[in-house]
């Protein structure tokens, strides 16, 4: 998968999680390890999450309708938010419950080679999935740090898969540590503690995902770099002499709405202004191809109009510095 919404990383994660879920559950049946049960449920939840991401990507491709004139691009944000809910409830809360029960009623792990072997296999499989997600992310991450990439990405799938895979790898290490300590000490409480730690980890990841996808659902503006490209493309220095104010909004990961009030000369003709607007729209789409919905309103620049339409806390484009009429 790519940050633009491809499926490579999702499919890789789905294949890994389905195989791992079966292996973990078999290991639980033979060993009775609560860590293995929690991890098997975790993998089942992750598999369901990848299914949700694929479903969201498919639904987002539907054509716009009179009832939804801007299309269905935000379906991907909705399904990514559902992923965080599933990860929190099915994965995190179940693991915490199992960990508490195992600490309260500990028992020895039987057939230790099953959980240890499966956990080692799972670490290799999850590592492959994580490597695929990293490779796909690097194609679009640029110079951003990983934290910045997760926070700024407009396509939700890669951050979701990255965090899920990271959580899965850390969870596997915790499960391996819990099983190892339980076997080494003969005290099953350690298995429960490992399970409890897995639950806490999953809940923390779910909260991060929920916060990021909530922001996308509410509607995020274009990134700083794209905003600058749009502003530079708008002004031609001839008919369009400045930007009075501007708003951008992601209708989906690959669709951007641009609305701006542009400054023109008072003696420009309607034909000249219409031609300048068409040219400005073409320049914007060339500079930022995802800017597919553009509304430009011409106006005579005035300080009062600019002040009324510009809120520094919310606005991305104000009057072009040095422009006066």
UniProtKB/TrEMBL annotation:
Stated name of the protein: Cation diffusion facilitator family transporter
Organism: Streptomyces scopuliridis
